[in-house]
Structures are given as structure tokens and as C-alpha cells.
């Protein structure tokens, strides 16, 4: 791939007149990212005592933490690429396991490679019986995301060899296990929360078909998933598979950078995903739509959002400032699913909310558009998946992205344990005062 030749920029310190030259490195093309090493700033000092300049970037608004060849997001143009393929094309033409292979291996699989990968994932879906007992220990009303986070962390104790993260063969095995077992743990968490017996995986079904089986099978001999819903879920998994250096992926890389095993790292990433500003958003969207209740209540609700009382959930994105391409695919799938399951009054509320918000100056000026989570909750609800499971579903899909990023990171010759700096604003060194002299 063509990589532009390095250029330089000269940094001028107005405090001292000192200049320093810094080399710019580019992504595949300059528009794919260009950066200078932040460490170059450290040479800029007002005197010898000075630590040197740092960049100050709360929330990492403009900091590249790694080089990555997996996913590219162009927020201004509304583009999402996985290994160079557009998300629209992958959602239209691939299956989730095919996209998982692409993210992890860098290329779309051949028919033989896909058959082998599918076989390997399918035959690692069962979890150790002790893990099932571990899950039995949760309270009847435990949130499934809490159960998922804890249970994935517990997997670490079943596979001690996973700690050898430098061993490529072991890494591949753990990746396979995690991709295979996440749906099982997720479904078990749900079944536990409704007091139903766990359903074992059915290896004859697809990845999403088997997940629906483990979620919903009752007394039937063989569970036959509805093909429209099975496909919709597969597309949703594709749309959620990876999204470059988002909050949870950064956590995966941060935890992984200490060479922790992938189970605890995925548990940590899942914990980050559970927050309402990240993977918890679709749950909040549904709650919001239920609170609004009917289309005539939408204008009043929008006014309260504009007054700063709360945010419009499922709107806005740190990176997409034009449209979220995943939201466009989801809207289409929502229509297909609801044609199958019957319309939802909440869909009318969502459509009206989107229509009014997109015409309103408050949202237009701030470039706030529906994100991937605005409609996904409606699909999940139509499939019969409870609200508390929404972020769990997101975690199943994103596990692939976390693992692809983790694997890439471990192979990066520039890998260093993550350790950001700070600008200290506390007290200077002071004299200790014994307790009787304080106050
Ligand atoms: N509703 C109303 N106002 C909003 C919203 C929203 N959903 N999102 C941002 N704004 C406003 C802010 O109040 C702020 O206004 P101000 O300039 O007058 O203070 C401005 O837009 C910029 O907001 P920031 O918080 O600085 O934007 P940031 O890029 O940091 O936040 C985020 C992105 C967290 C996604 C935000 O848009 C949000 O909270 N959205 C709702 C939650 C949500 O849907 N999260 C899912 C994200 S997608 C995902 O994780 C898969």
C-alpha cells in the first residue's frame, strides 16, 4: 500500500524561541491520519528544571494511541471501513463469522477457510459445567451485563495457559474460545435472570441461530430460528463488530498492554461498554422511547433535551459528525423485522423524534445525528430480546473487534504498557504537620 514519504513540521516555542523539528508519519493516505510523536514536545522547556511540554487531551479527542490496519472511520464523510471494505457492503454480502475472520485475519476467508473457522467456533460453544454453577450464584435479578463481565473474567481461571499471551498458538485458541463462548454466556445470563434452565448450544445452527436457540428454546426437540430475525441479528452483529479506538477498545488495549490474559481484558472492555454513553445507550434509547410514549409527546421531550435536562439517547457521536453509516443499514433492517413481527408504536415515536431533531437548529448546529443505537433497540425488542440484554448483545459482537485489536497490539513492535501523563494541579511539596498541630 502506498505510504507517503515522511514530512516534518517545525514547532516554535514562543516562550523561549526554541524550535524543534518533528517527523510526520501518515496512515495509508494523509486523510487516514497523520501524526507527530508527542514525545518530541518534551524537548521544549522554559528551563532545565522544566519537565518539558506535554499534550493535554482529556477524552483523547486528538490523540492517536496506536497504528492500526483494522478499521477506519471517517466521521465527517460518514464512512466505516473494515480492512478496506465498506460496512454497507459487508452488512449486505457477508455473515458475521465471515466479518469476524476478516477483522482477525486481515482478509475475507475462502470457502474452505470459512468452513474451518465456522467449525472451530461452533465446536467451542459449550462452557465448563463449573462455569454454569458459577453463574447460578448470581441473584435472580442480577443485570445480565454484570453477569457477563464477571463470568468472562472467571473464564480466565479455566484456561491458565491463556496467560502466555506471547504464544501465538495459545492466543489463537483463546480467540476462538471467546468468540464461541460469548453467546453461550450471554444466553445463560438471560436464562438465569428469568429462572429458566440453560439451553445447550446446537452445533447445527448458525452463530446467531444458535444464540436464539440458547435464548428462547423451551420444550421443542429442535429449535428453528425465524430466518428473518436470525439474519437481522447477524447484520446487527456485523455492524457492532469493531469501531477502531472507541472507549471499550481502548480499555482492551490498555489492559492488554500489561500482558494480562484476554479473558480479563475482554471483561474489562465489556465493563467499559456497559456505560450508558457507550454500549448501554440502546437500552437507554428504548427506555427513552417508552417514557415519551406517543408521537404527540415528542416536541415537549425535545424542548427538555434542548434545555439541558437530559440527552437524546441514540443521538450524537464522538466521531461521526455527518451520519453514522451503521444507522442507515439498521433503519432498513428495522423495517424488514417489523414487517415480520408487526409494527411497534415505539417505532413511530422514534421516526418522529428523528424527523423533528434533524430539522431542529440545536441538533443541526451540533451535528447530532442518529447513531448505531437509535434503532438497534427496536430490532432487539421485536426479536423478543429484553432491554437488559441489549449491551450484552453489543458485547458479543464487539468481542471480535476487541480481540482483533488486542492481537494486532501484541504484534506491534512499538507496544508499550499504557501509561498516560497528567498535568498536576495539586499542592507543591509541603511540610508534614503532626495531627495535634492540624486544623
Ligand atoms: N442530546 C443532546 N445534546 C447532545 C447530545 C445528545 N445526545 N450529544 C451531544 N450533545 C450536545 C452536548 O450537550 C454539547 O452541547 P454544548 O456544546 O451546548 O455543550 C455538544 O452536543 C457536544 O457534546 P459532547 O458531549 O462534547 O460530544 P462528545 O463527542 O463528547 O459526545 C456522545 C459523544 C457521548 C456519544 C454524546 O453525543 C452522547 O452523550 N450521546 C448520547 C448517548 C449515546 O447515544 N451514546 C452512544 C454512542 S454510539 C456507541 O457508543 C456505540
What does this structure look like?
This protein has two domains: 8-53, no CATH class; 65-419, Citrate Synthase, domain 1. Helix 6 (168-193) runs parallel beside helix 7. The strands form two sheets. It has a three-stranded antiparallel sheet with strand order 1-2-3, with no helix packed on it. The longest helix is centred in the middle third of the chain and has 26 residues, at 168-193. The protein has 17 helices and six strands. The chain is globular. Strand 1 (7-12) and strand 2 form a beta hairpin. The model has no long low-confidence stretch (mean pLDDT 94). The chain has 439 residues and is mainly alpha-helical. Acetyl coenzyme *A is lined by residues 277-278, 281, 305, 311-318, 366, 368, 371-373.
